[in-house]
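DM from R.C. (forwarded with permission)

"hey, sorry to bug you on a friday — could you get me a structure for this? deadline for the figure draft is monday and I only need the backbone to look sensible"
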Amino acid sequence: MDGRVASESLGAALRRLRLAQDLTLEGLAELSTVSGRTISDIERGVSLGPQRRTLQLLADALELSDDDRTALLGAARAGRVREPSVAAAALPRSVADFTGRRSEQRAVVAHLTSGAVDRPAPVVVVSGPPGFGKTTLAVKVATDLADAFDAVHLVDLRGYDARPVEVLPLLNRLIHAVEPQTGAAPRLLEDAVVLWRSVLGTRRVLIILDNAATEEQVRAVLPATGPVAVVITSRGTLTGLEDVVRIPLDQLDEADSLQLLRSLVPSPQTDGQDLERLAALCGHVPLALRIAGNRLASRQTWTVDDLAARLASEDRRIAGLRAGDLEIRAAITLSYDRLSERGRRAFRRLALLRGTTFGDALAARLVPTDLTTAEDIVDELADLGLVQPAARGRYHLHDLLRLFARGRWQEEEPLAERVAVEIDLRRWVLGVTISAGRWFEPDFGGAPPVPDPLVAMETSEQAQSWLREESEHWLVALQESAKVGEHRLVIDVAESLHWFSDRWAHWGHWHDVFSLAVQAARVLGDDDALATQLGYLAWAEMYTRLQPEVGLAHALEADVVARRAGNLQQVGWAAIYAHSALRILGRYDEALETARTSERALAEAGDAEGQVEARRAVAMTLIHLGRYEEAIEHERRVLAELDDPECAVSAPIAAFTRGASATLITTGLVRLGRWQETVDLVSEAFDAVPTSIDVVSLRAQLLENRALALDALGRRAEALVDQASLVALRDSIGDAAGAAAARGLLGPPADD
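My reply, with the result:
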């Protein structure tokens, strides 16, 4: 059976089946003995429920299969159901407690009132997920603008019902609403469009087309020019419409959510109560907030906290958001029921994702399908308001929609299949994360031998994009792996990411990653892994949580564990981490001795790259001890060793070290007042080895050193450029304190 017959209207199905047989109206009439006028009326939607005998004759003439014959007769039965009312109605009562949406309201009003006789008629599309207040906003605007128009007409298009309003009946109703004296309704759509535009003329009329599902429902209604204005509300953005202003609605901000609740709930029920919690449980969604407020207002013995306690359980929240005929579940169901089978499967399974946004690759893995098909599926979800577009081509699933999806997932998919999908998603996400992380390892960098068809991973930029954009997803997957005892996988993920962590030190969750790996190594009794992961955790404590004392404790434990395992290399690295903690704590003499201990251990272990890091630790400490010349000379020896053709240090580590050494040397030069040398070396570092300064902390220190040197040389304008770059860099990682310090770096402007 052609599946389209089951979902099309009777007229559209009959016309398509006739054309498939290459028959004209007259030809089908001759074969079936049904009059051409009757067939035309069916195809144009004038006759929605013809007699069964008529359909049987047509099916025989078209030589339909049994399935298509059954579907066509079913469409005829559906047509006999009472035609949905499409009368243009008076505006419903505008809510007195309308809250928020100030900027959206201003934008809609400004465009609707911009119409003129010789200009394109203004059209606004207000879009958003179920329950986000699209109709409420449209009615509010129309009520406020009532005096600016001769008439206001609202039509509910029932776009998400089983039988949406069709275009021809809609136009005829609007024509008679605007001009009641119009004669007989046109029977052809093109005639109705001509008459509609003629009736409108230069009238100042505001039309609200509420609840539109597709562009086809509204396109013919849109006037070409004139002061007439149109507001369309839809769960989708109706991207096919041209020359319209689109106003997407998001959830309310917290202040507006609280204001709405306070306007609905009597104050005795809110006094001393956690109104913020209730607003959050409602997802800051206007319909959910109104339902919660109405429930409380109708049960005066309840408090805000009482209702919040009822809604706290995620399994009960969707069902609990119901008050009389207002129900979140029913609003979402209208969209869910219109999805294709693959769309419903994808939407249900999106409930597994915990991140704020997601991309097509994750959706494709969940279905599962290829990327192209996944893009189509996600577009379908967006068109029905079930996901919202986010930045960089990604999408957002609102919390209440996620809970609805999870409920359907549990109801409609077998437990064994749900478990299999969860395991597959978790392991796939972590597998891609390991591949991405290895791009930044000196010994492993490069594309995976077997590329994943869903994720491009051919460059380090693509790898970095995955790690950053999907960080919420792979962190959750890592936490789930730890819970279910996949300890070796947890360690493998953390190990693959530790080089990348230097490039994204400001992320804020490295402590979580390396803590999980430490716990996994303890469970496995793997001392080599435990010593390694304790070192990474020490780094995270020091540089991302700013707790050097805790970092020192982890580094000292790493030393004990490494010695127990006989792992001299990890003994050396534990000393490097201990040095960093001691230096941050201002214990410089101890830090210097620890750095030199590390250098000796790593030399004995044959770790050339570790030796470079240990030598840099020595120079860093010498800077803090005020031994600037000694520190500079030390780092110049390091650079000379990197230039030696026999140097065993890998190219990525050598590049990083050059940037780090330039940072240390220029810091010493600034302290010595050797300004021109500072400028030259920083410029050389930026120009010659840009990849070495990809780490934010190094770039920031180099910019600071050159800005100070340029200012001291009297090159104020150039210094200010570096200062501005430094401020922007600090702002880009959310370092408000660092940005503030950068703004004051050069002091007040010099007097003219």
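R.C.: lifesaver. The radius of gyration is 34 Å.
me: no worries. Residues 672-743 form one domain.
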